[in-house]
Amino acid sequence: MRRRFLILWVILILIPLFISNCYSMQKKYNYGNPYLASPDFDPSEPQFEEGEPVWIVDKLGHYFFSLPSKLILWSWKMESHEISEETKTVMKNYIRENNLRDVKVRFNQYAPLSEWKRLTKNESISPFARYTIGIFSLIPYTFLPERLLAGIVGGDHYNSFTNTINIYSDSPAVAIHEGGHAKDFSQRKERTGYALVYAVPIVGPLYHEARASDDALNYFAEKNERKHLEESYEILTPAYSTYVGGSIASIFVDPVTRFTVIPGHLIGRYKKTTITDQLNERKIKKDNLP
Length: 290
Hints:
- The chain has 13 helices and four strands.
- It is mainly α.
- Strand 3 (about 155-160) and strand 4 (about 165) form a beta hairpin.
- Helix 1 runs antiparallel to helix 11 (about 225-250).
- It is globular and about 50 Å long.
- About 40% of the residues are buried.
- The model is unreliable at about 250-255 (pLDDT under 50).
């Protein structure tokens, strides 16, 4: 009983602490400047691709397999497998504005052969890492396709070993969060080490995920996109709290850690009510810059 009480207090203290210190719209937005120059995509292989609609697969994914993700994040958009033109346009603009010329973006697409090829060609990650952890990252993608199972197995994600973003949710906030991961990696000299840091318990995922969500919030603030800011707080904040819960669970295996999403929802909803004030403060700071 004491242990469970301790875990609960860790959750109640750590989640607000992490979120309040990680997310801020008061910073100047810095558009991406990749550390390594990269060529444009070959015309024979477009940078943005979308999977062909498969009615039975997409409907099963949307109405059945994605239900856990929808319930946890309380959003019907999660793993909907039907990406709107608005979400695709927001994503394409973000990729281009942040000079992410070498990242592949797949909208609801299952392309294992292409991903295995990208793994072999990604010279920004060391061969040792690619052919060990990189292979393990592609095995579930290949044999447990997220095109159907996202929400139960995997979901929207950025794979640093293939430098690919996979999007299954019709949410600009989620899409830009994944783009934030790609931008974060693009600015690193030692991408292999940075990829391995993500696997470090507790510290790894929390740092990477915070940077990606923070970039999404600041990007939408820079564009003055209130609707997308609201969605970011509603989805990305509780999503981040699940990473905090997972980190705590790696130390204390306890069912209580499954409820870490609740304070994330509460904080996200509260932060959403302060968007006007945050945007006004941001504008004042911007106007006062020399």
